[in-house]
Amino acid sequence: MIVGAGPTGLFAAYYAGFRGLSMAVVDSLPEAGGQVTAMYPEKMIYDVGGFPAVRGRDLVKGLVEQAAPWNPRYLLGRKAEGLRSADSGLEILLDGGDVVRAGAVLITAGIGEFTPRPLPAGDGWLGRGMVHFVPALDAHAGQDVVVVGGGDSAFDWVLALHPVAASVTLVHRRAKFRAADSIVREAQRLGVRMITDAEVSEMRAGESGELSEITVQPKGSDALVLPAQTVVAALGFTADLGPIENWGLEIDHRAIAVDSKMATARERVYAAGDVASYPGKVKLIATGFGEAATAVNNIAVALDPDAHLFPGHSSNVE
Ligand SMILES: Cc1cc2nc3c(=O)[nH]c(=O)nc-3n(C[C@H](O)[C@H](O)[C@H](O)COP(=O)(O)OP(=O)(O)OC[C@H]3O[C@@H](n4cnc5c(N)ncnc54)[C@H](O)[C@@H]3O)c2cc1C
To answer: 118-235: CATH homologous superfamily?
Structure first.
């Protein structure tokens, strides 16, 4: 069982398949890709081996494709809440009460579960026109989209949606943006409408029941009504290890202490990626990939003491 479908968990799913293990991958987000999907899918990444430059979204797509031949069972939109020992191995308790049995657990929970910062006027609109991130740009082709926020993610969505949407408007509650100057300038160059010192005060559905327009209230002036089929609430995320802190593991600075096998303090429970802590740790996608390979190969031996630690070379497999 892999807890977390970020880059590390996805690569671990490939590796588990390569080692002949079956696996389920649980993630509380509705899409795979962890921080990359949630925070920077449109950014180029320059420090993943073998890719001089790769867009976040494309890296995640490649990882999902790489694992696909081994048929990982994805449990997306589900949170791993509990871990207990059972006669047959381990049991992971999911929100909603389901229990998944596993011989070993690999925790690749990154910086923890993301909780999007709420947009007060968007209460009840999630999935009915309001989103916190955009898994598929095409879904917004021809729409009027309003992006709320003033940081890098908000501007990334503005720039990504601009070529596909009918209109993109940015609404930010302050006069100054937190985003990098270069992307703010690019949005200005493209003529994106930016309404600052203003908040979305109401969202309304049309006859179809879908979101159709919003009211924006600037400070000290009259309210504006904008057409909107989608509101992207890009107000940032908080991240929290949450229930994992109570799984009987050694927690070190909001991460899980591991040894050189990526084993935690609990038998058959391993950790890799941003969530794993050891002296000299560097939190990067590249290190997460290496740790995933180390963890899964050690899990293979823990599950079958006759198995070799070294997996053989993938290049020798037809
Ligand atoms: C803006 C930004 C830019 C970055 N740029 C780079 C870069 O250029 N190069 C680089 O190498 N790194 C970069 N990073 C860091 C990189 O994204 C992380 O190192 C990487 O995502 C870690 O992968 P991971 O799979 O270990 O964890 P994450 O990507 O954090 O994935 C963990 C997953 O676990 C899930 N999860 C957590 N708890 C639970 C639970 N209880 N139940 C179910 N699911 C759970 C979360 O929802 C999440 O999807 C960047 C990070 C940010 C924020």
So the answer is: FAD/NAD(P)-binding domain (3.50.50.60)
